[in-house]
Model the fold of this input.
Amino acid sequence: MKKLRIHYFQHVSHEGLGSIEEWASSSGHSLTSTRFFESAGLPEISDLDWLIVMGGPMGVNDEKQFPWLAHEKKFIRQAIDKGKTVLGICLGSQLVSAALGAKVYKNAEKEIGWFDIELTPFAQSDNLFFEMESRLKVFHWHGDTFDLPENAIRLASSAGCKNQAYIYKDKVLALQFHLEPTWDLLLEMIEGGREELSTGKYVQTEKELLNNKQLIEINRKILFVLLTRLAEQG
Done:
């Protein structure tokens, strides 16, 4: 496998790479970052092979409060247009969608917790998810959703959110859910967003979030397969 130059965008201190960092390190890939909560400096697109856009509590249109969002969306679009591999996770998937011209808006329900996603028939036959179970229990923490960008292909849905994942031109993967949490990252996410754990049809309690520790390793294995297959495609 080619050694990749991976750059990632991090929006808040408690939503880092998690097990993505382990995959990159074990595969010999290099990692650089822009941490928007510290500095909004952007790299040269020519200096990266992959762009990973992580999650965060802000919305894609909160540019008055977070002026760097406009520059971030422009950079994501430029990276896509340059043929870079782009992975968006949670807020990252929404930012990728906005960069591709799709509408991002409040979902009917918040999804916070361990809930099933259902792979589409396309996903089950596609290389990325090939031979995986059609139903996967993954971690969610979002209140917004997005329309499917033009020419994107839906890969997964859930009971609470129609568009959970899509692929765009084989190199852009958007995941509304999280596969990357380690135990430590899960604790950090809870600490950073505990006020959101209110009642809701798809909002679990802190105890429920922590009682599914066995799913962390299951999700890590799924993530490693996806990332490896995505790297092999590029």
